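Deliverable D4.2, example record:
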Amino acid sequence: MNVVGWIQIILFCVVVTALVKPFGWYMTRVFNGERTCLSPVLRPLERGLYAIGGVEEKQEQHWLTYTVAMLLFHVAGFLVLYFLMRFQASLPFNPAEQSAVAPDLAFNTAISFITNTNWQNYGGESTMSYLVQMLGLTHQNFLSAATGIVLAVALIRGFARASARTVGNFWVDVTRCTLYILLPICVVYALVLVAMGIPQTLGPYVEATTLEGAKQTIAVGPVASQIAIKMLGTNGGGFFNANAAHPFENPTALSNFLQMLSIFALGAGMTNVFGRMVGNQRQGWAIFAAMGVLFIVGVFVCYWAEARGNDILNAMGLTGGNMEGKEVRFGIVASALFAVITTAASCGAVNAMHDAFTALGGMIPLINMQLGEIIIGGVGAGLYGMLLFVVLAIFVAGLMVGRTPEYVGKKIEAKEVKMAMLAILVLPLMYLGWTAVAVVYPPAVASMGNPGPHGFSEVLYAFTSQTANNGSAFGGLTGNTLFYNVTGAIAMLVGRFWMIVPAMAIAGSLAAKKSVQPSLGTFPTTSPLFVGLVVGVILIVGGLTFFPALALGPLVEHFATVAGSTFASN
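Output generated by the structure prediction step:
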């Protein structure tokens, strides 16, 4: 750890914080249907899309109708993406002549991209055609990101409205999100990435001759457009197998910093949207502060662990930190920071091999995901995930002081608490349940690249990443098997939609309630005490749920390394 490293971390935090208000202001205007600087150009197009789709712009939906529309939208997206992959050999824009994707892999990948997970059991440049990358994967990157954002907005409306039966119109919200937020930013962003050296072409792969005279095929394609939405929409699915470690996806330290900022930008801004819509921006800042505390702690531990390096090598005098699995152009601090950001934000893009991190350094990304994508989280998903913990924290606070739990003018009652607990507790069922099956099922065990606690961590990380809709991989695990493709797809579906449906039920319940004025008995929810309470509840729930599994994986590996023990690869 050094001063330069901490300057990079502090600069990142300062810039992200500076983006919160402008992004929040703009997104609030978009979802309130107010005029923006892009309205003269995009408003006619917006109206045209409503006319084509038969959407009544002013007609809002009950929470159940809103949710059903979202689910049907994703069923259609799954079918389109699945059949694109299955028939890609017969479709155009396939200069590398990629063959059809296997049924189980196509199933896993289609589920992955509609759930904003982007788990990749394949190498993009060796598996997917340009058409699938553009029309299938990049297209779903926009729609899954937009879905997460609009669901968060629907939940915010539940807190903000009083005696209302509706929470918005899904079709209107997703159209506005895509047209006014995601597309304009990504167009500019992609052009910036092209200027930085990232390819954007429909030309064939390039043949090159090495210095030794050998022939080498260099994969190119429409890369920049996918990278822009992959980062901004916290999707994470790379055009290339090496993801953001590939020089054609992330060529320089500057592009790396820009990509890290774009991962956090919209998710951080959503906290300000919440504050603006409920009429008190301090509420949004309190949520942002709770997220920030968890993030800073994670960065500190991960950076410290990677800068400290491996104890066995240190004992041999080979100090200098852990550079294994990291790109020299990024170094330890940018790799550790990127790892924490991408797992805190449920993005899943990686610029280093997490499998090569130290035991404690690799544990932090794992914990970030296990907490339920709440530290900034996926765009929108991070906010509604955090609000579920806020509901639980308010309920606990009410029990402790003997008052009726209230939050931003709404009473928190049994229904809201039950729905919040359902959403929070269903995730460990997937994390831990499938891991328990995988470590005793022989075909699944055969996919593990390492024995002992590190191999256990590989499996735990895989199911945690998929359930948390993150998509990053620990590495070392052969995931493209029937078992992992099917079970992973189930984990992704449950992780996405079993959290969404209870959250939407809470939105409908809260919207129907009357607002109550704060009184002397109202627990203040913008104070440091409230931030500490929320963080405490998150850590207690997470600790009670996941400590035994962490003890079997990264913790025992760390103590074994300190004692000088190693676990040889198979």
